Structures are given as C-alpha cells and as structure tokens.
TrEMBL record, chain A:
Protein name: ABC transporter permease
Subcellular location field: Cell membrane
High-level lineage: Bacteria, Bacillati, Bacillota, Bacilli, Bacillales
Organism listed in the record: Oceanobacillus piezotolerans
Domain ABC transmembrane type-1 span(s) in chain numbering: 74-263
Membrane topology per record: Multi-pass membrane protein
Family as reported in the entry's similarity comment: Belongs to the binding-protein-dependent transport system permease family.
C-alpha cells in the first residue's frame, strides 16, 4: 500500500487526498442524520461511563452517548462553516470586483480591509455576536463578516495583475463595458481562486465558531456544538472524566485538518505554480 | 553597516552634498513616516470606534438590565428610567456617540458596570497580567518556531522535515482552548503538579501572593499559547529558508565548500531572521485571540477574560474600551514589524532615502 502511494504522482496523490477527505466529510453529514433521538436521549442508568465498545467516546453526566453528540456537533460546525464561508466568499468577490471600478473604490476597499484586520479577530467576533444578541445568527454573521479580508486581498492582487493583460486592454478598446470585462475576463479567472479560498477559509471559520461558542457567545447551550460540549466538560475535568473533552476536541482537530489538506490539495490541482511548492 | 557607511554610500551616489544636509533629509523622511503612521492610527481608531459603537448600540441586550442584574425586582420602572436618562440612553445614537467620544478625548473611558471602577484602571491592571502571559508565549513560540523552521528548511525532504511539517499542520488545526484543557487534565488533575486555575491561589489576599505562586499559575497558559504560536512562524521560516537556499549566492558558497551550520550561519541566518521577527510582530492580533481562550480555560485574570465577561455581562463601556485598546496593541505590533524592516534591512532604508 505504502509503496503504491509513493509511486503516485503529486497530482494523483492530491486527487487521492481529495477523495478520502470528501468521503470522511460525507460520513459526518450522513452520520448526524442516523443518530436520532435515541442516542441523544437522557439515559441515567448509563451516566458517566468511560469509553467502551457500546459507547466509543463514553457518556456524559446525563448518560448521553458522546459519540453521537460529537458527530452531531461536527455536522453543526460543518453547516455553520459552510454558511459563513459562502457569505464571506461572496463579500470578498463583490469587494474585489469593486476595486477595478476606479482608484477611489480601490482605496476604499483596501481601507476597509485594513480596518477589519486592525481589531483582533476574536474581539471583533465577540463584538458582532454581542450586537446581534448571540445565538446562531450572531455566529454565522460574525464569521461571515470577519473572514473576507484575506481572500479579498488575494483576489484584488489577481485583478490588478489581470488589468494590465493585453486581452483586457483590447476588450476595452473594442468598447466593452467594465461589467462585460468583469463578467467575461475576470470572473472565469477568479473562480478557481474563489473555490480554493472558500475551502481554506473553512478550517478558520470552524475553529473560530468552536472558540466563540466555547466562550459563551456562539451557539446556544442546548445545541450539541463542539464548543458547548467542551465548555461543559470543564466542570467535570477535576473528577477525571477526561473523555468528555478529549474525543470531541480530537474529532474537531481531525475535521479542521482534513479541510485544510483538502484545500491545499485542490490548490495543487488548480494552480500549477503552487503545486510545485513543497 | 552603521551610520557612517550609509552616509558614505549616499555621498557617493550624490544624495546630499554634505553630512548636514543628509541628516536633514533623513529627519524629514522620518518625520513624514511617523506623521503618516500617526494619521493612519487616528483614522483607524475613529473608524473602529464608530463601527463598534454602532454595533453595540444595536444590541438587544439592555444595558440598564445588565447593570442592575439580579436586583431587577427591587428597582422600579421609574428608577430604571432615571438610570437610562442619566446615561443618556434616551438621546439619539449620534448624540450618544458624540458624548462618548468627547469623554474619550478627555481621557475618560467611562466606568465599568461589572467592576464598578474606571475602565482605564481595569484595562491597565488586566493588561499587565495578560502582558506577562503574552510576552512569555511570544518569546518562546518565536524562538522555538524559528529553530524548528530552520531545522526543517536545512533538512528539506528528510524525515525530520516531514515530522516538523506534520507537527505544524496538526498544531495549526488544534483548537487552542482544547489544548489548554488537555494540559490542565494532565498536569493539574492527573499529576497534580500545577494549580487548576486562577491567577493567584484562592483564599489568599492579593498582597500575600508570592512571586513563585504567580509564576506557577502562569506556566500552563503560557505553554498553551507558546505551543499554538509555533506553527505559523516555523512554516514561514522553513519556506523562506528553502527559497534562499535556492539562490545563486548559496550555490557559490557551496561551491567554495561551505555546508551545514556554517553555511546557514553566514548566509541564511540574517536573511531568515528579519522576516521571521517581522511576521511575529505582525501576529499580535492572533496572540491576543489565543490569550482570550487560554485565560478563559485557566481562569487567568487578564484582559482576555475581561473582554469575555464584558461581552457576556453587557458591560458596554469596558467592551468598547478593550476594543479600542486592542486595536492600538495590534497596530503597535504591525508598526514594529514595519520599522524593523526599515531599521535592519539596508535595501529598504536606502530606498527611502533616495
């Protein structure tokens, strides 16, 4: 098996990584549907049991199966991350296309990027969540409004480069409108960047969601979010219930890591220059 | 190279006919630079205060209610109205903002609702505690990250490189607060070596806390922050070193027979050092974000814990104060990163002089 992997080209290896990660993520999504009320129900006779074959991740102080809660929490994070990253990518696309409009538009957008990067990310998330009164909406909008600057910067750089390309100049001389140039020259070129940017934004969004939920600003306590599970587990650490914190956190790490690899693999496939870097 | 060498060069290429004029030019350049940075900071602070004030005033959390807290039933609606009027909550948002801004300009950040003391005092006291934590973590993660990056870069492609890279990727995906929980479990609960939380032991007056006890409570949060901070700087240094090792002058040095540590020390060290320190300065925002989480896990009484309490408890003056303060903190980090390039890298310095 290992020798087989070694013989694959970089490109094939990237494809393999992508396939495996997508399978893993799909299984989380499907798994969360499979676990219904039964596994999450309170079963006092099973409470506080350490990991075993029937309860892989153990059970909590109410007898709920931690594995089921973890999978549900991961799926929740997945959903929140998906929603927030999508909004963020749209914001980044619109703002970066604005930069080609005029010098002033460009200056305003760069100023906004600087503005959003000038406050510590977590503090800004707390602020936005506070202003929206916390909860699901607060997290999603908070994540969406704070993750666009870095991608916007990359897209803006791409557009600046393309602006000087000859075919863009020719289109302009032929009397095509700015809208036409954006639609037919810039957008197709930006789509791979958008996609990779979206995937690489995902791990950040998920980690921030868990952090802010852990601090008490994010998803409400009745949701099985990983941040909620981990902040609850703090009360039971001193009595030695290590599994309450260990497995959910490890699963989150795994999911974030897989998304990160997925993004980088895709980048290798789509962008040959990045692909050469090791 | 030093001042003398620099002046010699500028003399040779004809900038400034004599030393005096050259110095004058230099002072002018620096004044312009500092002035520009100052204007930028002020414009950012104005924008951040407008943005955060608008956000906060839209919040559904009622400041009067969070001020009164559990005594809600004891306070009549009229009294509540009086408090709201006293705070100027009946004025328009713009008027409120102007009042707040005027107070800030005169150095008054308001009074914290939770701590019932001036916000400036809370921030000062809390920030000193956080500063101890963050500076320890900053130095450790910087040094270890740099060393790891150098080792990986020099041994690119070997198992050592792969292990370090793997470690960095895993750390980059690790939730900082989870790592804190793990350390807490292992060292405080299982082994019992270190205390479970709080910046000082419970039940002892703050004046009687010994220096050793303070250090003890600082260890775990600082370790958490240091471990998390390593990844970025190590990966960056590694990539930078690999890029440099590809350059012509390295090939030439190798051809002369230099190799290993000697080669790195003479040709790679300074080239990787400057960007590494620079990105490390530019990471103050993430450092503070990590501190918020670490302080929460270890109940360390720093600024990070204060911002969480302010947010959860609806303490608007403190929240706004911390937002402005951390903005300045991050700005200083970025400024230092920028200055470092100017002061250390002669190419950029010369570019600004000509």
């Amino acid at each position: 098996m290992i020798s087989n992997i070694r013989s694959l080209s970089l490109r094939q290896r990237a494809l393999l990584t992508i396939t495996l990660s997508v399978l893993f993520l799909l299984s989380i999504a499907i798994g969360s549907f499979l676990f219904g009320e039964d596994e999450l129900a309170i079963q006092m006779q099973n409470k506080n049991s350490s990991p075993s074959l029937s309860h892989w991740f153990g059970t909590d102080w109410l007898g709920r199966d931690m594995f089921a809660r973890t999978v549900d929490g991961l799926a929740l994070s997945l959903g929140v991350g998906l929603l927030a990253s999508s909004i963020s990518v749209v914001i980044a696309l619109i703002l970066s296309l604005l930069t080609m409009w005029s010098e002033w538009a460009d200056r305003i957008v760069t100023w906004f990027i600087d503005l959003f990067l000038s406050v510590p990310h977590l503090v800004l998330l707390i602020l936005i969540s506070f202003s929206l009164g916390g909860g699901f909406k607060g997290v999603v909008l908070g994540l969406a409004f704070t993750h666009w600057p870095s991608l916007t910067r990359i897209l803006r750089g791409e557009i600046l480069q393309m602006k000087t390309a000859e075919y863009v100049g020719i289109s302009k001389q032929l009397g095509k409108s700015k809208w036409w140039v954006a639609r037919y020259h810039f957008l197709p070129h930006l789509i791979p960047q958008l996609f990779v940017g979206f995937l690489l934004m995902f791990p950040h969004a998920i980690l921030h969601e868990a952090s802010i939920t852990f601090l008490g600003f994010g998803l409400p306590a009745e949701q099985p979010a990983i941040g909620v599970i981990l902040s609850e587990s703090m009360r039971y650490l001193s009595v030695g219930m290590w599994w309450l914190a260990f497995f959910p956190g490890l699963s989150l790490l795994l999911m974030v890591g897989i998304f990160d690899r997925l993004g980088h693999s895709l980048q290798k496939l789509l962008d040959p220059f990045q692909g050469q870097k090791r | 190279m030093g001042m003398a060498g620099l002046l010699q060069i500028s003399y040779k290429i004809g900038i400034g006919k004599n030393r005096e004029e050259d110095n004058r030019l230099k002072v002018k350049q620096w004044t312009k630079y500092i002035l520009g940075k100052l204007i930028k900071l002020i414009s950012l602070l104005v924008a951040v205060s407008i943005l955060s004030f608008v956000l906060v005033s839209n919040s559904p959390i009622d400041p009067v209610q969070s001020y009164i807290g559990a005594d809600m039933n004891l306070v009549s609606p009229e009294q509540r109205g009086n408090i709201a009027a006293y705070w100027g909550l009946h004025d328009s948002v713009v008027q409120q903002f102007l009042n707040w801004g005027k107070n800030i300009l005169s150095g008054d950040l308001g009074t914290s609702l939770l701590y019932r003391t001036p916000v400036a005092e809370v921030i000062q006291e809390r920030f000193l505690a956080s500063l101890a934590l963050m500076s320890l973590a900053w130095v450790f993660s910087g040094v270890f990250g740099f060393i790891l990056g150098i080792i990986a870069g020099m041994r690119q492609g070997t198992w050592l490189d792969k292990v370090i890279k793997m470690y960095c990727y895993v750390i980059a995906s690790t939730p900082a607060f989870w790592l804190g929980l793990l350390l807490l479990m292992v060292f405080s609960v299982w082994l019992g070596w270190l205390p479970i939380g709080l910046g000082s032991p419970a039940g002892i007056l703050t004046g009687e806390v010994t220096f050793m006890q303070r250090i003890q409570h600082l260890i775990l949060p600082a370790v958490t922050l240091s471990v998390v901070g390593v990844s970025n700087i190590a990966l960056h240094t590694r990539q930078k070193l690999i890029d440099i090792l590809d350059k012509e002058f390295i090939r030439y040095a190798r051809a002369k027979g230099e190799a290993g540590f000697r080669l790195f020390w003479r040709h790679g060290f300074r080239n990787t050092m400057v960007p590494a320190i620079s990105i490390h300065f530019a990471s103050f925002g993430e450092l503070f974000g990590g501190a918020v989480l670490a302080e929460q896990v270890f109940s360390y009484p720093g600024l990070g814990q204060a911002v969480v309490q302010a947010g959860l408890g609806g303490d608007v003056p403190l929240l706004l104060g911390i937002v402005l303060f951390t903005t300045i903190f991050v700005y200083i980090g970025n400024l230092l990163a920028d200055l470092l390039y100017r002061v250390i890298d002669p190419r950029i310095r010369r570019g600004t002089l000509s």
